[in-house]
Design brief:
The protein is α/β, with parallel strands linked by helices and 258 residues long. It has a domain of 138 residues: P-loop containing nucleotide triphosphate hydrolases (Rossmann fold), CATH 3.40.50. The protein has a 6-stranded mixed β-sheet with strand order 6-7-8-3-9-10, with helices on both faces. Helix 4 crosses helix 5 and helix 6 packs parallel to helix 7. It is globular, with a radius of gyration of 19 Å. The N and C termini lie far apart (41 Å). Bound molecules: adenosine-5'-triphosphate. The site of adenosine-5'-triphosphate has 11 residues, from strand 2 and helix 2. InterPro entries: AAA+_ATPase (IPR003593), ABC_AA/LPS_Transport (IPR051120), ABC_transporter-like_ATP-bd (IPR003439), BCA_ABC_TP_C (IPR032823), P-loop_NTPase (IPR027417). Keywords: ATP-binding, Nucleotide-binding, Transport. This is ABC transporter ATP-binding protein. GO terms for molecular function: ATP binding; ATP hydrolysis activity. Pfam families: ABC_tran, BCA_ABC_TP_C.
C-alpha cells in the first residue's frame, strides 16, 4: 500500500511559476507559462529550437526579470529576488557558481565547493589543508555521485562524462532544494549519457530537478513530468508517454502529424 504521508511529501511543489511572460523589445519570448516543480521528481522542459526553454530557465533562476508573472520558491515570492539570493535560498543552476579546477583532485574540487555555503568563501588564501574538516562531507558527496574510485584523480584526467558529474557534485555542495540542469547530456557519448542519467535519477530522490534536454530518450527514461514549449507557450504537459503521443507535439517536432 502507498504511504499517504510519503506520497504527499513527494508531490510537494517546491518551485512554481504563474503567468510568466518575457518580452524582448515587443517580441514575446515566453507567454503565460505556468509550471509546478515537485520535490523528488525530475521535470523536463523540451521543445523545438527557439521555443523559449532557455528564457524560462533564465527567468526561474532570476538571470532575467519577467515582464509579468510570479515565481515562488518553497512558498516565498522570489519574483524580484536577485539570483545570488535565490541560489542561497536553494534554487541552484548547475554551472552557475561551480567551477571545476582541472589541476586539483576530485576531492579538492568538492571541498572548495563545500566551503562556500559555510561562510569561509572570503578566506581563499588559507591553505587547502585548512579544509580538512570538510573531508567527511566531501567524501559523502563523492560517494553519492559514484566518484569514489576517482577521489584522488585530477579533474583534468576524468572522462568528459565524469567531469560533468563532478560539476554536478560541486553544485550539490550548495545544498540546493531545486537543481536546474541546462542540457546535462550535451556533447556526451552513449555510455556517459547512461551514467549521468543514473546520477541525476539518484540526485532527484532528495531534491527537485528541472532540466532542459534535447535527448528525448533520456527524457523518456528518467523524467517524471514533461513540459513542451512552442513559440514561448506551453503546448503540452504530462508524462513522456502522454506528451509524445500528442499530435500537436509530433507536429511541433516533425512539422506534420506523422
Ligand atoms: N535577449 C534576447 N533578445 C531578444 N530575443 C531573444 C533574447 N533571448 C532570446 N530571444 C528570443 O526568444 C526566443 C526563445 O529563445 P530561447 O533561447 O529561450 O529558446 P530555446 O527554446 O532555448 O532554443 P534552443 O533550443 O535553440 O536553445 C527566440 O526567438 C530567441 O531569438
Amino acid at each position: 500500500m502507498i504511504d499517504a504521508a510519503v506520497e504527499q511529501k513527494e508531490s510537494r511543489v517546491v518551485l512554481s511559476a504563474r503567468g510568466l511572460v518575457k518580452e524582448f523589445a515587443g517580441f514575446t519570448a515566453v507567454n503565460d507559462v505556468n509550471l509546478d516543480i515537485h520535490h523528488g521528481r525530475i521535470h523536463a522542459l523540451i521543445g523545438p529550437n527557439g521555443a523559449g526553454k532557455t528564457t524560462v530557465f533564465n527567468l526561474l533562476t532570476k538571470f532575467l526579470q519577467p515582464t509579468r508573472g510570479r515565481i515562488e520558491l518553497l512558498g516565498s515570492d522570489i519574483t524580484r529576488t536577485p539570483p545570488a539570493k535565490v541560489a542561497r535560498m536553494g534554487l541552484v543552476r548547475s554551472f552557475q557558481i561551480s567551477a571545476v579546477f582541472p589541476n586539483l583532485t576530485v576531492r579538492e574540487n568538492v571541498k572548495i565547493a563545500l566551503q562556500r555555503p559555510s561562510g569561509l568563501a572570503r578566506q581563499f588564501w588559507l591553505p587547502l589543508s585548512s579544509l580538512d574538516r570538510l573531508d567527511a562531507r566531501a567524501d559523502a558527496l563523492i560517494d553519492e555521485l559514484g566518484l569514489a574510485g576517482w577521489r584522488d584523480h585530477r579533474a583534468a584526467d576524468l572522462s568528459y562524462g565524469r567531469k560533468r558529474v563532478l560539476e554536478i557534485a560541486t553544485t550539490l555542495a550548495l545544498e540546493p532544494k531545486v537543481l536546474l540542469l541546462d542540457e546535462p547530456m550535451a556533447g556526451m557519448g552513449q555510455e556517459d549519457v547512461a551514467m549521468v542519467a543514473d546520477i541525476i535519477r539518484n540526485v532527484a530522490t532528495e531534491r527537485a530537478v528541472l532540466m532542459v534536454e534535447h535527448n528525448l530518450s533520456v527524457v523518456a527514461n528518467i523524467c517524471h513530468q514533461v513540459t513542451v514549449l512552442q513559440r514561448g507557450e506551453i503546448l503540452a504537459e504530462g508524462d513522456y508517454a502522454t506528451v509524445s503521443a500528442d499530435p500537436r507535439v509530433r507536429t511541433a517536432y516533425m512539422g506534420n502529424d506523422a
